């Protein structure tokens, strides 16, 4: 081969070596890029530092076997032709070079197949078999050294985080001790006192150490471990090496060193409520959420999602304490965001140990302190209980004189359509009612506001139940225009709540209060209409009784309606709201943290909604129809009563609640309106007409049918779902046993119908079998 051809071959081999090195580095570049993107996503305002590119390109700087630029030089003499003693000395010299990452003359490293693959070596085949055998036992040490060296250099990049940096720093200490051993062996070699057997003897302790280090390095690399995942891996290694004292001591040393930066983040979190996690290694992750949205968005999950636990970042030795660690920092963070400087007075350094009891005691103490600080801050300084009582007075109608004053002032305004109502006028009437009642002593009365809702109560309930379901978009697409509602249907209170009370009294909680209020408010309105009708009827009762026999039926129906409305309100106010509120206040006296307060408050609202029929659309729709019949009846009777005063009075459709009337119910309502209007127009024959008697009978039949349907559905619901609280409605209304007989008859008819359907389905199945 000519010198020119030889030079070309060397150049090609050099290019192959460089290309193989580039291929090895490419996966590591991808990993570093992914980690940088992850850090940028979680910390958009903080750029991750990067090492200069030449650090990765100049591989000769890392202390591992660097690829040669040309064709490796061949030894002039085969080692097997040399005397045995000279072979051994030559191999010892080459071995010492290999132990520091440099190729020898007769022992040469092979290219790597992967960044963290074990390195193989080529040995001159002419070497003596005994020397080659002994040498083969020591080459795994060199391979482990190569893996550890590459791992240290790669994981020292900023992208891998502080925990991995601390781990490789501990490994670097052991790496230096290994190099000191090699230098001592080299000194012995230079003085002629080192044989291959002595090298084997001196490296015995180091073999196990390097094997463990390389095994950990490979596991961390393959698992792409950072932060808590790295600590979990190290903890498992330390726990699994219980029978090997030397290996366990090494693993404990590495784990303690690697856990220092993680525990520093943990201490700041549980002692001060601060997260300083630039590399996204900690188990608690902070989301970019605004606390102001709690007051606006029903579905806002600030408390649950502002700080969340990242499962793969939880070290296994802290797995059972993750929830308490999360809560501890959250509690302190709330107080800190209110301008209060908090810090755990008994803070102590958290140090890694296999005894988990040490962590439990420290974290439990910090958790108790944080819980007490936030709970005291909310209950005493922010007067949480006082605020909740104020909301109860307004939204749950606990302040009777204020409500009566407001209804008397605003009733005529609220009878109009929403589009015709001036919110400013309602606000003025609200202010006047507050000043004229005992609510004037409430220091937070100015936080009460007026809100005209865009949907009726049933639609609002359906929209709330459909949140985060497939029905949500379909309901939003079929919304009816809000200006078709009357003020009575759309009216609700709203309440201004500032941080941090908005954690407890969030928009979600306020929406639940509003649903209960709208339900009670409309019931109270219907009761007022029936009471006003009673007053009107009382004034003209003598004239009615002289001229009409059927008017007694109307008076009796009015009394049944009034009895129903008063009993249903008594049930909701005195058997649902008041007992559960009393229980809620008692529970607040025993809570130990703010999460317990949230649970008790949510549980109170859920029970009230459920027992007031506000979580069952079927029951609510029937109840709404009942109230609509009552309102139509009062309007009709008021027109009749006012006939003696003004014969031109006509039943106006906008005076009647038609929102819950659909299909045939709407047609029934329309016929009632036309009948009543016709009767009023026919003034001369009005009191002798049989048509109005028919109308009263129709009201009576509709009311009785809906009421019996409601009681039947309540009975079924209580039996099937084992919810017996609503059964009290039946007990209160069925004082004479009349409805009990009707309900029994309905149950018998239902069971007989099911039996017939079952028999018919069985016959059809039998007929199909015989035909086949």
From TrEMBL:
<dbReference type="Pfam" id="PF04130">
    <property type="entry name" value="GCP_C_terminal"/>
</dbReference>
<dbReference type="GO" id="GO:0000922">
    <property type="term" value="C:spindle pole"/>
</dbReference>
<keyword id="KW-0493">Microtubule</keyword>
<dbReference type="GO" id="GO:0031122">
    <property type="term" value="P:cytoplasmic microtubule organization"/>
</dbReference>
<dbReference type="GO" id="GO:0000930">
    <property type="term" value="C:gamma-tubulin complex"/>
</dbReference>
<dbReference type="InterPro" id="IPR040457">
    <property type="entry name" value="GCP_C"/>
</dbReference>
<comment type="subunit">
    <text>Component of the gamma-tubulin ring complex (gTuRC) consisting of TUBGCP2, TUBGCP3, TUBGCP4, TUBGCP5 and TUBGCP6 and gamma-tubulin TUBG1 or TUBG2. TUBGCP2, TUBGCP3, TUBGCP4, TUBGCP5 and TUBGCP6 assemble in a 5:5:2:1:1 stoichiometry; each is associated with a gamma-tubulin, thereby arranging 14 gamma-tubulins in a helical manner. Gamma-tubulin at the first position is blocked by TUBGCP3 at the last position, allowing 13 protafilaments to grow into a microtubule.</text>
</comment>
<feature type="compositionally biased region" description="Polar residues">
    <location>
        <begin position="761"/>
        <end position="772"/>
    </location>
</feature>
<dbReference type="InterPro" id="IPR007259">
    <property type="entry name" value="GCP"/>
</dbReference>
<dbReference type="InterPro" id="IPR042241">
    <property type="entry name" value="GCP_C_sf"/>
</dbReference>
<feature type="domain" description="Gamma tubulin complex component C-terminal">
    <location>
        <begin position="384"/>
        <end position="739"/>
    </location>
</feature>
<dbReference type="GO" id="GO:0051225">
    <property type="term" value="P:spindle assembly"/>
</dbReference>
<feature type="domain" description="Gamma tubulin complex component protein N-terminal">
    <location>
        <begin position="92"/>
        <end position="381"/>
    </location>
</feature>
<dbReference type="GO" id="GO:0000278">
    <property type="term" value="P:mitotic cell cycle"/>
</dbReference>
<dbReference type="GO" id="GO:0007020">
    <property type="term" value="P:microtubule nucleation"/>
</dbReference>
<keyword id="KW-0206">Cytoskeleton</keyword>
<dbReference type="GO" id="GO:0043015">
    <property type="term" value="F:gamma-tubulin binding"/>
</dbReference>
<dbReference type="InterPro" id="IPR041470">
    <property type="entry name" value="GCP_N"/>
</dbReference>
<dbReference type="GO" id="GO:0005813">
    <property type="term" value="C:centrosome"/>
</dbReference>
<keyword id="KW-0963">Cytoplasm</keyword>
<comment type="function">
    <text>Component of the gamma-tubulin ring complex (gTuRC) which mediates microtubule nucleation. The gTuRC regulates the minus-end nucleation of alpha-beta tubulin heterodimers that grow into microtubule protafilaments, a critical step in centrosome duplication and spindle formation. Plays a role in neuronal migration.</text>
</comment>
<protein>
    <recommendedName>
        <fullName>Gamma-tubulin complex component</fullName>
    </recommendedName>
</protein>
<dbReference type="Pfam" id="PF17681">
    <property type="entry name" value="GCP_N_terminal"/>
</dbReference>
<feature type="compositionally biased region" description="Basic and acidic residues">
    <location>
        <begin position="750"/>
        <end position="760"/>
    </location>
</feature>
<feature type="region of interest" description="Disordered">
    <location>
        <begin position="749"/>
        <end position="772"/>
    </location>
</feature>
<dbReference type="GO" id="GO:0051321">
    <property type="term" value="P:meiotic cell cycle"/>
</dbReference>
<dbReference type="GO" id="GO:0051011">
    <property type="term" value="F:microtubule minus-end binding"/>
</dbReference>
<comment type="similarity">
    <text>Belongs to the TUBGCP family.</text>
</comment>
<dbReference type="GO" id="GO:0005874">
    <property type="term" value="C:microtubule"/>
</dbReference>
